[in-house]
Amino acid sequence: MSLTIKKVFKYHFTLLILFFFMVASDINSQQSLKEVFKDHYLIGTAINNMQIRRADEQLFEIVKKHFNSITPENELKWERVHPTLNNFNFEPADKIIEFAVANNLHIVGHTLLWHSQTPNWVFEDENGNLLSREAMLDRLENHISTVVGRYRGKIHGWDVVNEAFNEDGSYRESKWFKIIGEDYIEKAFQFAHAADPDVELYYNDYNEWYPKKRDRIVKMVNDLKAKGIRIDGIGMQGHWGLDYPVISEADDAIKAYSETGLKVMITELDMDILPSAWDISADVAKTAKYSKELNPWPDFLPDSMHVVQAKRYAEFFNLFNKYRESISRVTLWGINDAQSWRNYWPVFGRSAYPLLFDKNNQPKPAFDAVISTVK
Asked: Which of the four pLDDT bands, split at 50, 70 and 90, describes residue 279?
């Protein structure tokens, strides 16, 4: 290697080291979310297997500095942890749990029963016919007892049932509902409690501010309590936007849920600021085709939108702080913008900016706005 090349290499290596220490110093100088909210509620984030496998130390430092609760994003959903009838794949979830235990993090298991991300074989016999009620209950109990039992004493709470109701308060006609009947929810809670009598058990849903849906969830909770079936909390998925829900509607929902006596949790918080795919196309089913109109800021978010998003985040955290006696946890659904699911749903390939840290792991104006709600 020539002397000139050595000098160039040394120069760039020095710059790299300086950049690393600048980033580390920046992270260390930030106020800690979990410290700011330590007298209010837990502050959580979702983490996935890819982040663990890549061993991104900067991401890990953000988690350890700012969050005291984590939720595996996908690794405990049925399709991942129980992909075939006689095969459980615990390795990805195990790695996340090991990271959480090593860093003394509160752990939430997500989710034991859901209509989505559940393989078709779960509901079928060897001939492809739908199972009987009894066979379906046996399969559900085996899954829950195996998964919950494996993490007994490590996972602190489980999202037992996810998204069981429609916005009008009716039951979602999932295969769980069609095969087992209305009591599939209480059966799932009973199976989870039997597998780990000490773990907390939650119901989780989205659009939970709709009045009819809200009232139906409250009725379900009270029915379970009247039957002596353990349920500890209600999770409100915070996949919200700039114009939904109206703050007063979210307020009414939190108030109604807190009056059940259960813990209230904001479970999957992110703030969508992109144009709605549903408003642009009336023919959208589950996803929409990419278009420039749906991806207005492919490279960076303008300052004006940072201000709008920060204000919206502050409105919600002011609301959460109002109910600090009832809310036990607020979980952001991801660590930074680059890894948010909003980048690929409902439109694949957009640049979404829904979280408190940007694609370079730097705190956004929304981060400061959230901190300011306690100051």
From this structure: low
Look up residue 175 and give its two tokens: 């295969």
Buried-exposed string 232-261: b where 16+ CB fall within 10 A, e elsewhere? bbbbbbbbbeeeebeeeebeebbebbbebe
Q: Which helix (H) or strand (E) holds 307?
A: helix 303-322
> Both tokens of residue 367?
């981060």
- Give the helix ranges, DSSP H, for 67-210: 78-81, 91-102, 133-150, 175-180, 184-195
Mind listing the pLDDT tens digit for each residue in 35-73?
999 999 999 999 999 999 998 899 999 999 999 999 999
Coil, helix or strand for 240? Answer: strand
CA 113 – CA 251 distance, rounded (Å): 28
SS3 87: strand
The encoded tokens of residue 340 equal 């948010």
d(CA 203, CA 184): 13
Judging by beta carbons within 10 Å of its beta carbon (0-12, 13-18, 19+), is residue 171 exposed, middle or buried? middle
Residue 24 has pLDDT above 70, yes or no: no
Q: Are 39 and 88 in contact (CB under 8 A)?
A: no
Determine the Cα–Cα distance for residues 237 and 269; give it in Å rounded to an integer: 6
pLDDT at residue 117 tops 90:
yes
Which tokens is 75 given?
Answer: 């690794």
Active site positions, annotated = 163, 268
> Whose CA is closest to 224, among 200, 180, 172, 260?
260
